[in-house]
Every structure is written in C-alpha cells, then in structure tokens.
Amino acid sequence: MDERNIEMDERNIFDALEASNNQLGQEEEHYEAESGTDTDEEEGQYTFLEAVNQSLAAEELSSDEEYVLTELGPVIHRFEESEATPTTSTDGQHTPDEVVDRSTPDVHQVLNDLQEDIAIPIHLAAKDGIVWSVQPGAVNKTPSKNVFRPPVRKFINCQTMTDPESAFDLLFTPTMVRDIVKYTNKEGRRVQQHRWVDTDDIEIQAFIGILIHLGALNQNIFPTELIWDTRNGNTLARSAMTRSRFLALSNRLRFDDKETRTERRNRDEFAPIRDMWEQVLSNMRRHYVPGPFITVDEQLIPWRGRCKFLQYLPSKPDKYGLKVFWACDAETNYPLVARPYLVQQRKI
Prior knowledge:
Layout: H1 3-35, H2 39-42, H3 48-57, H4 63-84, H5 107-118, E1 123-125, E2 131-133, E3 154-155, H6 164-171, H7 174-192, H8 201-216, H9 224-227, H10 235-240, H11 243-252, H12 261-265, H13 271-286, E4 288-289, E5 294-302, E6 311-312, E7 320-329, E8 335-340
Antiparallel strand pairs: 1-2, 3-4, 5-7, 6-7, 7-8
Helix pairs in contact: 1-3, 1-4, 3-4, 4-5
C-alpha cells in the first residue's frame, strides 16, 4: 500500500466521523427547536468517542478503518479529556461560558501522537490478513552471513605442483596408479598365466602418458601400425614402449577386482570403473575453486565396444558412444562433476 492510499484511508475515517458529528448536531438543533431546551445543558454534548461508536454501529466504516480506529482508541480518549476540560482564566477561575473547539483533530497529528506516546506501529489490515504499516520499518544492516559473495576462481592445495608431472599426480595419485598395476597384473596372470610379464608404476604412467599425448595430437583414432611406423610414426610412443607391449596392456588393463565385479554390477552398471572415476572427480574438486558461473552439458564419448548403456545419437559426429553429463567452470572449462547416462537405450 503506497503513501497516497494510506492518506486516503485516513481521510475517509475522519470524514465519516465528522459526518456523524454533523448529523448528531443537526438532531440536537432539531430537538432544541421543538422542545425549547438546550441538550448540551441537560444531557451534555456527544463526545468524540461516542461519534466513533455511532459510526461503527452504523457500519459506515471499512475493515481497514475499523482497525485504525481500534489502534486510535487510547489517543481518542486523550483528546476527549482535553476537549472536555474547560479553559481557565488568568486568575485561576474557570470560564464555563467558553467552549472548547470540538473540531476533528488533525489526522497526521493523531497518528504521530499514537506513534510517539503509545510506542506501537500504526497498521492497516487488509481483508486477506496482510497488515500494512504507515511508518517505515527499521532498516537494519544485513548480517555478513547472509551476504552472498561470488567465489574467486583459483587453484588450492597445490603447494607440491612444480612441473606437469607433479600437477598430474594431484589428479591421478600414485595410489590410484598402484591399484591399476595390481588389478592389471592379476588379470594378465589369469589369462596368460606364466607368459604374462608383470607391469609396474613407471610403465603404467608411460602408458597413460602415451594416451594423453596421442589425444592432444588427435592421433588417438589412428591405427597402431601407423603410430608405431618407423618412418612416419609417433616418435614419443615408439620410444616409450613397443607396439606389442602397448596392445598387451590395452587388453589386460583393469581398474577394479574382476572377482567381485559381478556382485557390484548388480547394483551399478558402471562398477568396472566407478571407484577410479569418482576418485579422479574428487581430486579435481579438491584442488580447484570454481567461479560464480557453472555450465552443464552432455558429451558423447566415442565407443563401439560391448556396453549395455551404449547410446546412439545420429546428430553427433560419432554416432555411437557413452553419454556423460558434465558440470564445468564456464570460464575455464575445468570439469567438476560428471554423471554417466546408464539407461539402456531401446532397440528400434
């Protein structure tokens, strides 16, 4: 409710009161003319509060006006007492012939007196129960805990990061590499038995480095014969390991214990790499504070192997693959959260 509407409500209240007083005065004059008596002397004047009661009884006021009059009750009584008190002359004697002005008091003065003397806010009640205040509420300072300050984008807990290798270790920890070594050797012995040559941490790190290097050069889709070609192949891949060893590690690489996989897979289709997946994402969030803007989108990771939740998206460049939903920093594209889409697609 704006200030203009409040002033109109106040004016309507006292216009109704003044109209009631005028009606009472006309009735008094009519009675005096017929009986020849002065009603003020015999019965006394109608008080301002009586005029209020008359208006309320006649149901001339709205619910808002009645609410304001209820709040104004103590002030009306005070004005009535001041109006009923006769004036006093300079010698201390009352002058009953002098009549106190019974005009309606100023609306704003009444409201100010109510606010200052009674120390309660003046309200207007709506029909739906909402209570509006004429006086503005106290403006308090917002607590610091309620003030939102956008986070500052930065890397944290990176004291040990001195080169690219140490930066990679923050996300792909040595403990995770040792788990890959353990499960890969276990699978190699199970399949190839005594013909399997155990791998170690250094060789697995070299294997991961080759994959990252080929991906950065967009050579990850090349056949291995071309990558390990002595004339036009990739020098870094050939210097790290032979093609046959690379293929052996690719076939036997494992991220979990295959003996317990069946039980875990009943609860989670992503069980073969779930633990390693969550550890990498947890390390990413541990060492980075994102900015105020996060973007969410989907990605189709190309894949044509055996998988129950393989997706077919004809609008993508690679139509078959694994669909993953990512939440990344909008400015740096740094990944924070990833959820694979594990719903099996219906066959058409």
